[in-house]
């Protein structure tokens, strides 16, 4: 008998909630967390529910957020603090089951099938998790309980904040049917537009379409969508540590081909990636650069290094070399820099080469930023550049779901 033992736990307005918890004067106030202020070109990393009443959402330009909410309070991102709180949350979850799959800094799947004898029914476990995180960490989570990861995730999002939704076995398709098609995994803007040609507005509309039609129109993705629309998701909750990466991206307000702007942006992105690596005490074996043009065609190139690094200059040089061939003759919408195949810095010190004086200067700059904020010290080349310092939500990243446009990836041979 199939049972509803999959849980999806999602922290509500995580970054903003942490700031409101730590600063009582911000409670019940509209708070926007981002890299920059109301006149900067950055984007919203998180918005409190008070700010969301103005229509403010994550990834919205900060300037737009300021225009929507004149009394919004802007708070700088503190990635180190959010990562530490995330680890505390995951420790709470692992008290109830060892089968915890963290999928981002603020959400995780659990399989509690083996925990019922000790902790009670899945619903009781969900209630106890909410109570523990609230009383011990001062944060609110929403939880979905279902037979599959897909349905549990959709359920956790339905009654935010502080939601708890159980989908009984056998009711998955009926539960999903009235929901907007955009709530389904794998449905981005382009797929939604294609489905709209067949009158699909809800998940139920999609479930009613013949599978052979979906396969002809969308290929193998069409069959996957048909299954998901019925709540079918065979993927297990995996407690294995996922491959970690650190990435920063920047979307330009206006598409550009200006070489100086593009290089400064790559430098800012490399700076952000390097800071996160050093803060985490890890180094990267692989560096990648992402380029997206005005038509949403995305190219990602990557290179495996002879020696792992956490230094901004090394990351920038490799990212620039990777991106340059793709920048010729196009207007660029987005640039990204990523570091992957990470390992502990102390374990890699034996293999490191580089300028020790430069490393000491970098570490000193990191200490200044940690104490006085991310804007306390910056590179001269980035002053008045208009390049927003990007913020990567979490070192545990996953591919974009439902991304628009074509994509290809190019891997270079390992360096000598």
Concise synopsis of the structure shown:
This protein is of the alpha+beta class. 39% of the residues lie in helices and 22% in strands.
Account of the 3D structure:
With 416 residues, this protein is an alpha+beta fold. It is built from 16 helices and 13 strands. It has helices at residues 14-22, 49-52, 62-68, 79-96, 116-119, 122-137, 149-156, 172-176, 189-196, 203-207, 211-218, 220-229, 259-280, 312-327, 345-348, 356-372; strands at residues 6-11, 31-34, 44-47, 73-76, 100-104, 107-111, 141-146, 164-166, 245-256, 282-293, 298-309, 332-344, 407-411. A 5-stranded mixed β-sheet has the order 5-6-1-7-8. α11 packs across α12 (220-229) and α13 (259-280) packs antiparallel against α14 (312-327). The longest helix has 22 residues, at 259-280. It is globular. Residues 346-354 and 383-416 have low confidence and may be disordered.
Write the layout of secondary structure elements.
Layout: E1 6-11, H1 14-22, E2 31-34, E3 44-47, H2 49-52, H3 62-68, E4 73-76, H4 79-96, E5 100-104, E6 107-111, H5 116-119, H6 122-137, E7 141-146, H7 149-156, E8 164-166, H8 172-176, H9 189-196, H10 203-207, H11 211-218, H12 220-229, E9 245-256, H13 259-280, E10 282-293, E11 298-309, H14 312-327, E12 332-344, H15 345-348, H16 356-372, E13 407-411
Parallel strand pairs: 2-4, 7-8, 11-13
Antiparallel strand pairs: 1-6, 1-7, 2-3, 5-6, 9-12, 10-11, 10-12
């Amino acid at each position: 008998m199939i049972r509803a033992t999959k849980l999806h736990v999602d922290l509500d307005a995580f970054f903003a909630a942490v700031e409101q918890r730590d600063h009582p004067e911000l409670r019940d106030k509209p708070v926007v967390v981002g890299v920059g202020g109301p006149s900067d070109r950055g984007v919203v990393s998180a918005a409190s529910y008070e700010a969301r009443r103005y229509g403010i959402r994550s990834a919205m330009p900060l300037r737009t957020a300021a225009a929507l909410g004149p009394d919004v309070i802007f708070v700088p991102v503190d990635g180190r603090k959010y990562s530490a709180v995330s680890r505390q949350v995951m420790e709470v979850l692992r008290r109830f089951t060892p089968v915890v799959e963290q999928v981002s800094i603020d959400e995780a799947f659990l399989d509690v099938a083996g925990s019922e004898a000790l902790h009670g029914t899945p619903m009781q476990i969900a209630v106890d998790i909410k109570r523990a995180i609230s009383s011990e960490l001062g944060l609110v989570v929403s939880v979905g309980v279902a037979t599959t990861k897909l349905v549990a995730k959709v359920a956790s999002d339905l009654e935010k904040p502080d939601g708890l939704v159980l989908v009984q076995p056998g009711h998955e398709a009926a539960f999903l049917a009235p929901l907007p098609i955009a709530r389904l995994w794998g449905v981005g803007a382009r797929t939604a537009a294609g489905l709209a040609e067949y009158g699909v507005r809800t998940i139920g509309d999609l479930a009613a379409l013949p599978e052979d039609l979906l396969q002809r129109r969308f290929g193998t993705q069409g069959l996957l969508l048909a299954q998901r629309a019925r709540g079918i998701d065979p993927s297990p909750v995996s407690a294995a540590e996922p491959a970690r990466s650190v990435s920063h991206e920047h979307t330009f307000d206006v598409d550009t081909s200006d070489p100086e702007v593009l290089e400064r942006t790559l430098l800012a992105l490399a700076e952000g990636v390097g800071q996160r690596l050093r803060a985490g005490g890890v180094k990267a074996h692989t560096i990648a650069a992402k380029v997206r043009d005005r038509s949403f065609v995305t190219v990602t190139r990557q290179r495996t290094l002879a020696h792992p690094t956490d230094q901004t200059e090394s990351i920038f040089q490799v990212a620039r070399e990777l991106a340059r061939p793709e920048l010729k003759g196009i207007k660029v919408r987005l640039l990204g820099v990523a570091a992957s195949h990470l390992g502990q810095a102390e374990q890699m010190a034996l293999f490191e080469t580089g300028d020790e004086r430069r490393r000491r200067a970098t570490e000193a700059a990191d200490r200044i930023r940690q104490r006085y904020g991310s804007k306390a010290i910056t590179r001269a080349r980035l002053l008045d550049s208009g390049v927003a310092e990007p913020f990567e939500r979490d070192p545990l990243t996953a591919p974009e779901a439902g991304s628009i446009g074509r994509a290809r990836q190019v891997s270079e041979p390992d360096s000598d």
